[in-house]
């Protein structure tokens, strides 16, 4: 789908903007590099792209020796593409609105406070079947720090609720065992016993846990919409997406004193340096506490 959008965008540049073939080829190369980065990071839906993800992309390019002039060109290519997507309603938000080549330093991901998480989790109407399903989804995202793809692919056989763990199939088809908290177990059990039997269809549902109203596996976009719906209801003004729950899960664990390597294992990071960004968030949290409460802060 990303490449279909790219093809349409390049056609627009060629026909309506009358750009040279060399310029069009540059746009194509820049955006193809971005797509490759997104695919490596398990992002196939352009609605999941945030400012932070784009900043990470530029960090990665700097590691391989990108020049300052190239930063400007990449920035222009990416801004133009996402403006095109936004104007054609192909995406629901434009992550490049504040993008500037002079501001592309490493940005920390958006993290919800515990109070904000609680407020979001209070929003689903659990007397409603789909509301109860959504409650179970949100609880599990926060309780276990799952990627969207991991959540969507969970099956009945992956649940070991009596042992308070679930089995997750992560990147590179690597399995890991992740703890699940009592609140998530409670809501997941309610969903499995009262709602899923009503949603499941013999030929469609297989053993997938989370189903849509037609009995099929939920899509990435459906999860994005569920998160957006309840964040709006909770009046959360931050740029929240499903991955934000994963960021918040890791950050809150580290703030509470969890071991970095234990968090790495739970997140399924192959490289601990990926997990270490959450220690930066933790330090920012500590500095903010100092600033807010120290008499000479």
Key attributes of the depicted protein:
297 residues, mainly alpha, DNA polymerase, domain 1, hpI Integrase, Chain A, three-stranded antiparallel sheet
Q: State the secondary-structure class.
A: mainly alpha
Going across the biggest sheet, name each strand in turn: 1-2-3
Shape designation: globular
Range of strand content: under 5%
Rg over CA atoms, rounded to whole Å, is 21 Å
Main sheet characteristics: 3 strands, antiparallel
- Domain count: the total is 2
CATH class category label of the largest domain:
Mainly Alpha
| Distance, first to last CA | 50 Å
How many distinct beta strands? 3
* Overall pLDDT confidence: 86
List the helices and strands and how they pair.
Elements: H1 2-15, H2 21-40, H3 51-63, H4 68-87, H5 114-121, H6 129-144, H7 148-152, E1 159-160, E2 165-169, E3 175-179, H8 182-199, H9 220-233, H10 242-255, H11 260-267, H12 272-275, H13 277-293
Antiparallel strand pairs: 1-2, 2-3
Helix pairs in contact: 1-2, 2-4, 6-8, 6-10, 10-13
């Amino acid at each position: 789908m990303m490449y279909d959008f790219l093809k349409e965008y390049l056609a627009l540049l060629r026909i309506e903007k009358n750009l040279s073939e060399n310029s069009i080829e540059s746009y194509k190369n820049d955006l193809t590099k971005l797509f490759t980065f997104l695919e490596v990071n398990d992002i196939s839906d352009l609605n999941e792209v945030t400012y932070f993800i784009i900043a990470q992309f530029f960090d990665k390019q700097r590691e391989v020796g990108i020049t300052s002039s190239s930063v400007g060109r990449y920035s222009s290519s990416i801004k133009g593409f996402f403006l095109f997507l936004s104007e054609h309603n192909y995406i629901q938000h434009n992550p490049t609105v504040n993008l500037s080549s002079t501001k592309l330093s490493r940005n920390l991901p958006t993290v919800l406070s515990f109070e904000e998480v609680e407020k979001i989790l209070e929003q689903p109407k659990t007397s409603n079947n789909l509301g109860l399903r959504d409650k179970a989804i949100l609880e599990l995202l926060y309780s276990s720090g799952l990627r969207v793809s991991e959540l969507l692919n969970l099956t009945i056989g992956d649940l070991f609720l009596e042992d308070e763990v679930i089995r997750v199939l992560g990147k590179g088809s690597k399995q890991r065992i992740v703890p699940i908290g009592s609140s998530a177990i409670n809501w997941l059990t309610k969903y499995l016993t009262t709602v899923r039997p009503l949603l499941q269809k013999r030929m469609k549902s297989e053993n997938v846990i989370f189903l849509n109203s037609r009995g099929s596996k939920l899509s990435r976009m459906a999860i994005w919409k569920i998160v957006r719906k309840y964040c709006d209801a909770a009046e959360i003004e931050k740029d929240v997406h499903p991955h934000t729950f994963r960021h918040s899960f890791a950050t809150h664990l580290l703030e509470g004193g969890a071991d970095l390597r234990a968090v790495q294992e739970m997140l399924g990071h192959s490289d601990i340096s990926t997990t270490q960004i959450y220690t930066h968030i933790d330090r920012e949290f500590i500095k903010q506490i100092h600033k807010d409460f120290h008499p000479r802060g």
